[in-house]
Structure formats: structure tokens, C-alpha cells
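Example record

One chain of 258 residues, shown exactly as stored in the release files.
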Amino acid sequence: MRLQGKVAIITGAGQGIGRAYAERFVAEGARVAVADINDASAKTVAEQLGDAAIAVHVDVTDEDSTKAMAAATTDTWGRIDVLVNNAGLYYDLDQKDFSLGYLKRVLDVNMIGPWLCARAVVPALKAGGGGTIINQSSGAAWLYLMAGYLMREDSDQLPSFHYPISKSGVNALTHFMAAALGKFNITVNAIAPGTTMTDATRKHVPEKLMGMLTMTTALGRTLEPEEIAHVAVFLASDEARAITGQVIPVDAGQTMLG
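Predicted C-alpha cells for this chain:
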């Protein structure tokens, strides 16, 4: 078991890729705090995972809530070794709202949230002699071609590019945190999934667009959440202790092809 004895917090673990992370981490020997703003979803996942998991409420935009999440984890297991910043505004994303207020909301959840969660757990990671932070980016951070579809010819409104901009911010945050925390034996990396077949993807990506996105990959296919979880397990394991500051696309070769 590659994560035997490790304690991990996984935000947004009540569904989608976050749930796949939690399931795989427990299978690899970790104890997991299933952290989510949806208490019912977190409880369901934690109960299915048994004694190796607890459900923890967290609102990643609220500093006190992130601190409470870290405290609940250390109170239960005495330590934190891994933080997976998976929570984000995607399933409920309003792709047509380009207002300033909504841009700030998306950035608050998707970019500031990981920063707050990292601040909350760094003291525990330092106390334990080091650890791992894994941020959730997205292949959307590099899909600049899509901007042309957002800017309509019959409109003078500049789109906010809220989701891809938020994930671009996560990439930068990953680099800066890695540079700052390396001296404490804390590694920081990000995973940038491509088109992954979750409920959120099925909700937001029309069938025609799905076909187009698939055609732009080297492997000619979409991904499953479990395939993203494989990479998270590696980054959380001792095998990846020399890897930090990297944004790793797991996208069937889409980024490679540009």
C-alpha cells in the first residue's frame, strides 16, 4: 500500500473526481477526511469508506471553516500528511454569467479556496516534518481557443473567462507555494485533468463539443475519474518526494497537441 499510515484531507470529496480520490487513497492505506460543503454527500462517502474516513464540513471560501477542517482532522488522527485541494465551482458553474460579481465568486472558490486550505494545514505539515499539497487545476487553463467561442460577434461584452482564469491562477499558486514550502519538506504540485466523465462534465459539455474535445487528444478519448486518482496517489506517495512545483496534465494528450 503506497499511502499506508498517511492522513489526507480531500476537499470536494463528496462527488466526482474528489470521491475517486478518497476511494483510492483509502484503498492505498490512507486515512481520509472527506471534506465537503455538502454534508450529506460527505457523510455518504465517509460511511462507505468505513473507519478509515471521517466526514468534515468545509466552506473553502471561509477562513475559519478551513481552520476547523484542519483541526477536526488532527483531533481525530493527530496529524496531516496530505492536502488535496479538489473543491471547486464547476458542477454549479453558470457559464453565461460574465458579471464582475460572479467572476469574483468563481475566483473565491477555485483559486482563493486552495490558498486558504493550504494556510490552514501548513502548520500541521511542518509539525510532521513535511508533507504534500496537491492542487486541482484543469486543462481549461490552456484552452485559449475556446475564448473565441465565448466572445460573440453580436456582443460588446468582454467575457470574464472565469473558470479557465481561476485554474490558471491555481497553476501560478502551485509554483509559488512550492517555492515557499520546499524548505519545510513540503511538496506542492497540481493535476490538470482533461475531459473527465463526471456528472459535472456531462452537465456542461454538449455531445457535439465532447466529440470535438476528444478529437483534439492524442489518445482520442475522454478520461475516467479513477485515472486522475492514479496520479494523485503517486504524488502523495514517498515515490514523488523529489517532484514539486509541477502542473501535470492528465488529459490523453490534449495539451501536448495544443
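Notes: Residues 100-127 form the longest helix (28 residues).
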